[in-house]
Amino acid sequence: MFILIYSLLDTPATCFGDQVLGHWKVEISEFKTPQNDRVDCDANFTTKKVKYFELRAPNVAIDEDGFYGTWTMSYIQAIQVRLGGLDYLWYFNYTETPLLEIKQVRVNTYCTQHLSTKAWVHEEGVAVPKHACIRATNVKPLLDNTTNETLKPAPGPVNDYFEVDGKKYKLQPRKLQKKVEYGRKKAPKEQTLTSVYSGDKLPKNFDWRNVDGKSYVPSPFDQKECGSCYACATSYMMMSRYMVSLNTTEYPMFSVQHLVDCNEYSQGCEGGFGEHVGRFVEDHGILTEKDYGVYEGVENECHAKDLKYSDRYYFTATQTLGGYYGAITDPVEMQWEVFRYGPMVVNIFVDDVYFNKFDPYGFDNSVNLTDDNQNRHYFYDQNNHLVIIVGWVSEEITVNGVTKNETFWIIQNSWGKTWGPQKDGTMKIAMGYNSYAIESEPVTTYYRSSGAFRPKAPMNTYQITTIVLGVLTGTFAIATVLFAALFFLRKKRVAYEQVE
Fold it and tell me: Does residue 288 contact residue 304 with C-beta atoms inside 8 Å?
């Protein structure tokens, strides 16, 4: 059962940060306003515009006119670029070859190419901006090696090295994960930001389920036999942050089924990413269960087009903490984000051994480079599930005669109300060890109470002229009416005086 429900796999593609650097050519179709809650693309669209931009490490995008923006990996399967008022997203192209002799499937990922029909661009902003389909090609990649070979569902490349400017960089081979042992030096102690921080102090214990006796976290969800953890966790983060933003414990029950059925950026019951749920909600808003329907645990045809004028709730800036994948893994920064704005989605790696036993330490899941590769921009932690952090707790722990104070994240899962060691839908995961990769990819979002908001474009000369002429015409019309009224009243008064 667990293998089915904690799949995060959107596609089997595998690309890394260095492999997408270079000069990209993007062909764009005609921009249109979506007529329902899906933006499906035809691979044979007619190109209306072509854009060129360069991606540089760690997250800078620069177009042919010199304008700059940002980019981020979406885990290892897709890429998102925000540049020049446009927001691009495309998945990487791949092929699958059955290997019958070993009962495996070989996956070749092409990191310089988009996946057909899984590539879009839309105007930046909130509430049904105009969309277009795209074709994206890295015409001048920085690396020579931009194709990875993996065995499905293997987590990393078979390639044993990459080459940059004639220098070879070797990757450590992916082997069995190592158990995170109690007492290992905690990561925050090695980070300058944490060690010199002198601002307000965080509480020793904090839980959004009990803040002055009030809960800002909906009751745990059950995703059933559907790989919809990405939709469950992100929608629950949104409901919690709605409550925190408005300082209320009342909340609209968002429809997870709406996200599973209608979000073209994800794969329904086959997986997805929290950031892409946010992109969909930024476009269309999220409907409530009352307006769309309750969760069924299966993917259905999207019927949101019949509910275009129903209540929709909008969120923005749904992205990895720090703005790009790999930017921030400091637990203290994660604590502040949770403390200030509410529960937060985190990507984790779930196994059938330690996680199934609710072990708070789990695996050391990072994939590192060898020591001579420290200058490379490279980040990767294997993940396959999304949950939400609702708080943390500090406890005194004794192991092998050694006593120390340990802090644990409190996560809420989407495997039912009675899951976990306390039978309450939650468990503890050690903080500062990156146990289960919990500190590798936190995701944020923020509620927009004003709803349909888009930045106003600057007015051109024609628009200004039209407004001025409109004002002058309106003023002339009003003056004419007033003059006519005064003339009529004067004529009437003169007539009355003559009768007198």
Answer: no
Which segments within 413-486 are labelled E, that is strand? 426-430, 442-448
Cα separation, 397 vs 46, in Å, equals: 63
Q: List, in order, residues 6 or more apart from 421 with CB less than 8 Å away.
A: 358, 427
Which residues make beta-bridge pairs with 45? none
Q: Could you tell me which of 253, 257, 254, 276 has the C-alpha nearest to residue 266?
A: 276
Euclidean distance between CA atoms 444 and 446, whole angstroms: 7
The sign of the dihedral angle between the CA atoms of 170, 176, 177, 182 is negative
Is 339 in contact with 206 (CB distance < 8 Å)? yes
Amino acid at 113: Q
DSSP secondary structure code for residue 208 in this structure: T
Upstream peptide bond of 58 is cis (omega within 30 degrees of 0): yes
Residue 20 has phi, psi (to 5 degrees) of -105, -5
Peptide bond into 153 cis (omega under 30): yes
How does pLDDT run along the chain (500 residues), one tens digit per residue? Answer: 333 344 445 789 989 888 999 999 999 999 998 878 888 899 999 999 999 999 998 899 999 999 999 999 999 999 999 999 999 999 999 999 999 888 889 999 999 999 999 999 999 888 878 999 999 999 999 988 899 888 876 544 555 444 444 555 444 433 345 667 765 544 443 334 444 555 678 999 999 999 999 999 999 999 998 999 999 999 999 999 999 999 999 999 999 999 999 999 999 999 999 999 999 999 999 999 999 999 999 999 998 876 556 789 999 999 999 999 988 778 999 999 999 999 999 999 888 888 989 999 987 666 554 445 444 456 678 888 999 999 999 999 887 788 888 999 999 999 999 999 999 999 999 999 889 989 999 999 999 987 644 344 444 444 455 566 666 666 766 767 666 666 665 555 544 444 44
Q: Which two tokens stand for residue 89?
A: 């997203």
Instruction: Please answer whether residues 399 and 407 qualify as being in contact, where contact means their C-beta atoms are separated by less than 8 angstroms.
Output: no
For residues 435 and 363, is the Cβ–Cβ distance under 8 A? yes
Helix pair 229-246, 274-284: axis angle to 10 deg: 60
Can you list the pairs that 420-423 forms with residues at least 24 positions away whose Cβ atoms lie under 8 Å? 420/358, 421/358
Which two tokens mark 242? 């709605």
Distant-in-sequence, close-in-space partners of 181: CB < 8 Å, separation ≥ 6: 361
Distance CA(484)–CA(472), nearest Å, equals: 18
What is the number of alpha carbons within 13 Å of residue 257 lying toward its C-beta?
18
Q: Which has the closest alpha carbon to 408: 385, 426, 386, 391?
A: 391
